[in-house]
Amino acid sequence: MISKHAVVQTDLIGARVEVHEFAVIRKGARLGDGVVVHPHVVIGSGVEIGADTEIFPGTVLGKAPKGPAISRAIEFVPHIVIGPGCALGPNAVVFCGVEIGTETLLGDGASIREGGRIGARCILSRHVTLNYDVTVGDDTKIMDNTHITGLSCIGKRVFISTGVSTANDNSLGLYGYRKEAIRGPTIEDEAAVGASATLLPCVVVGRGAIVAAGAVVTKNVEPGVLVMGCPARVVRRLSA
Amino acid sequence: MISKHAVVQTDLIGARVEVHEFAVIRKGARLGDGVVVHPHVVIGSGVEIGADTEIFPGTVLGKAPKGPAISRAIEFVPHIVIGPGCALGPNAVVFCGVEIGTETLLGDGASIREGGRIGARCILSRHVTLNYDVTVGDDTKIMDNTHITGLSCIGKRVFISTGVSTANDNSLGLYGYRKEAIRGPTIEDEAAVGASATLLPCVVVGRGAIVAAGAVVTKNVEPGVLVMGCPARVVRRLSA
Amino acid sequence: MISKHAVVQTDLIGARVEVHEFAVIRKGARLGDGVVVHPHVVIGSGVEIGADTEIFPGTVLGKAPKGPAISRAIEFVPHIVIGPGCALGPNAVVFCGVEIGTETLLGDGASIREGGRIGARCILSRHVTLNYDVTVGDDTKIMDNTHITGLSCIGKRVFISTGVSTANDNSLGLYGYRKEAIRGPTIEDEAAVGASATLLPCVVVGRGAIVAAGAVVTKNVEPGVLVMGCPARVVRRLSA
User: Fold this and answer.
1) How many contacts (CB atoms, under 8 Å) link A and C?
2) What's the pLDDT tens digit per position in B157-216?
3) C181 in helix, strand or coil?
4) With 0-12 CB in 10 A as exposed, 13-18 as middle and 19+ as buried, what is A98?
5) Percent of chain C scoring above 70 in pLDDT
6) Cβ pair B63:A91 closer than 8 A
7) How distant is the Cα of C137 from the closest Cα of chain B, in angstroms?
8) N or C: which end of chain C has fewer CB within 10 A?
9) What is the DSSP string of A156-224?
């Protein structure tokens, strides 16, 4: 069912696809069988969407990064690949050059910048923002209003709670963009980060470690420990 | 005035209703007298809107929760009741199964999940996210970018500042969804929570208590006291 | 190129303007040469847009503040002036009575309330919310999910990281809106504020000072010092 009020410029559309009113789908976009496109969605020309994925109103897939005032050089490919069985939006934004695995959920207003690689069965909840070139492993959940900075690396089965902040530049942007000095946190498999925690540039949170709510992580966290406080210190070793 | 560019599938529309361009209103939705629907709004079939409520562009009323990767069972009713005199959006999202009282304001991008019960004369400011089954009493204000976790209970005349995080699972999601172990904070009438504060699962903030900015609340807070710090401790008793 | 699916009620449109599908542009709006308006954008009647500015899908320019439940009296002018070479959105919101300088970037869902004065070459990143009557100087960057409270004053070449909260009312809204008691922070030129920091009402962060990640600033910060902790204390003087 393609609404007569939609603008569909591609013919690469599978069986049983629904496109609702006032959606805009550009030439060259590919929609797998059973994809549902709600009203007011925009899908750019390099976007490929797996079967049975549902895209809620106002979501934008295929935004080109545009950067007056951005200090680093912006590079991206126009392609986006979204796996089957995902649910995206409403009002989510996926920039060019992103890949998303099977059955992943993007909440309202979630936004993924260019170069993102998101695994299968992930949740990126409402208003979660991922900056450029972030990797997220399978089965990882990131809760509402959390920001993941550019060049972060997040493992599998990780849980990141709400209101978490991450940073990638110890100079706080004061010296422009020095590519060699910029790196976000690394969070290894099965680690968990509590609400309102803050992770500073380059820190590694080891496998299975827990960062308590409100902690400010300034140094690497060993695998399998619980850290708390500001600055975060080891409180105890977790039983495996 | 119904724009010829809108899609209006219901005829349950009161007097003096305005529906602007590219809005989509599904069959069965009810709009009271004087309701204003701005461009690009989507209103689902089970939505009932009180008189003189104004719905700003891009707002979505009646989203069904859809949860690939959500570990709990999702239940909801398709019905939404929104009281008279409200202002919603732009780009706000109200899920199915929500009730909102008279003259309440939802800021841009505010989002209320299924089972929400919001009182009269509340403000849920920009990008505020309420998870499932949250109760908010009359005359309560929740400021920008704050997240209220599922199964939280917030009283009347409460003030919650900006950037506040709340959590409902002490196991940080590591054991899946264990319904009996999940509970958000309770914030009693006339309490206030400062900017960037964090409330851990199950804590009760007593009537008229104040949680200082940046505090991490790990235990119940007695009525009428001021708490500060990480973990939050009582600083003094407030005069009534 | 004006899409036949757009609603364009103004004729004050420059050369080489693009207006895409389902955009709505009200009578009296002015678009400079080379402006690009993506699908589902709404531009109100008092909006003036400089040359070559690009407005991404779902962005709303010219929202009138509407305040059931807002305790202060709301005043605004319908006019908005946006400089040349800006990039706005997707899903950004600019209220009435705002001015934005040359080549400034608003990220997805960024929102500027009435009375905002934003300089040139600024970045207000994703989901950044500015409340009413905020001033931001040239070349200032405010990162994702940060909230700037009403009546704040931010200088030039300032960097404000992600997840920063600011407050303007020491009584936490408990006594209604007392105009004489309300004031946001002042952040002087070239200062930097780290991730998850909190700035309390009326504080002044001096020129070139640095507020560390997670700090809670309760008192004025002298120019040129580094402060840390909760409450924030001077750690050292920065070399100039």
Assistant:
1) 127
2) 999 999 999 999 887 776 777 777 889 999 999 999 999 999 999 999 999 999 999 999
3) helix
4) buried
5) 98
6) no
7) 22
8) C
9) TT-EE-TT-EE---TTTTTT---GGG----EE-TT-EE-TT-EE-TT-EE-TT-EEPTT-EE-S-B-TT
Which tokens in the block code for residue A164? 């978490």
The share of chain B scoring above pLDDT 70, in percent, equals 98
Nearest CA in chain C to A66: C87
Picking from B178, B140, B177, B180, the residue whose alpha carbon sits closest to that of residue B160 is B140
Mutate to test the interface with C, among B125, B144, B210 (most CBs of C within 10 A): B144
Mean pLDDT, residues A68-82:
80
C91, A68: Cβ pair inside 8 Å?
Answer: no
Q: Which residue of A has its CA nearest to B167?
A: A195
| CA angle (C37, B128, B105) in 5-degree steps | 80
Contacts by residues A36-44 (CB-CB < 8 Å, ≥ 24 positions apart): A37/A6, A38/A89, A38/A90, A38/B42, A39/B24, A39/B40, A39/B42, A40/B22, A40/B24, A40/B40, A40/B42, A40/B58, A40/C22, A40/C39, A40/C40, A40/C58, A41/A89, A42/C38, A42/C39, A42/C40, A42/C57, A44/A78, A44/A80, A44/A96
pLDDT, position B184 = 95
Option in A58, A167, A172 nearest C91 (CB): A58
**Residue B240 banded pLDDT, cuts 50, 70, 90:** low
Using CA atoms, how far apart are residues A237 and B133, in angstroms rounded to an integer?
A: 35
C1-139 is classed in which CATH architecture? Answer: 3 Solenoid (2.160)
The structure tokens 């930097």 sit at C192
Mean pLDDT to the nearest integer, A12-33 = 98
Q: Which residues of C167-190 are buried (b: 16+ CB within 10 A; e: fewer)?
A: bbbeebbeeeeeeeebbbbbbbbb
Per-residue DSSP letter, C124: E
Q: Do C42 and B54 touch (CB under 8 A)?
A: no
Q: Which two tokens stand for residue C4?
A: 């036949």
**Using CB atoms and an 8 Å cut-off, which of residues 14-73 of chain A contact chain B?**
20-22, 38-40, 54, 56-58
Provide the Cα torsion A54, A59, A64, A68; round to 10°: -160
- Whether residue C148 is predicted with pLDDT greater than 90 in this model: the reply is yes
pLDDT of residue C118: 98
Tell me which residue has tokens 């695998």.
Answer: A223
Q: Which residues of A touch C161 (CB under 8 A)?
A: 165, 167, 172
d(CA B61, CA B82): 10
**Which of B19-23, B73-77, C198-202 is the least confident region?**
B73-77
Does B116 contact chain A (CB < 8 Å)?
Answer: no
Instruction: Name the residue type at position C173.
Output: G
Averaged pLDDT for residues C79-87? 97
Nearest to A42 by CA among A69, A28, A22: A22
Look over chain A and give the mean of its residue pLDDT values, rounded to a whole number: 94
- Alpha-carbon span A99 to A104, nearest angstrom: 11
Neighbours of chain A (3+ CB pairs under 8 A): B, C
Q: Smallest CA–CA separation between A101 and chain B, in Å?
A: 12
Interface test with A, best of B111, B127, B218 (most A CBs within 10 A): B111
ipTM exceeds 0.90: yes
Written as six digits, the tokens of A2 are 């393609």
% residues pLDDT > 90 (chain A): 87
Confidence of residue A76 (pLDDT cuts 50, 70, 90): confident
Is the pLDDT confidence value at B73 over 80? Answer: no
Q: What is the pTM of this model?
A: 0.96
Q: Where are the domains of chain A?
A: 1-139
Do the Cβ atoms of B69 and A123 come closer than 8 Å? yes
| Phi, psi angle pair for A112, to nearest 5° | -120, 120
Q: What is the distance in angstroms between the Cα of A180 and the nearest Cα belonging to chain B?
A: 32
Distance from the A87 Cα atom to the nearest Cα atom in chain B, whole angstroms: 7
Please tell me which chains touch B, using 3 or more CB pairs under 8 Å as the contact test: A, C
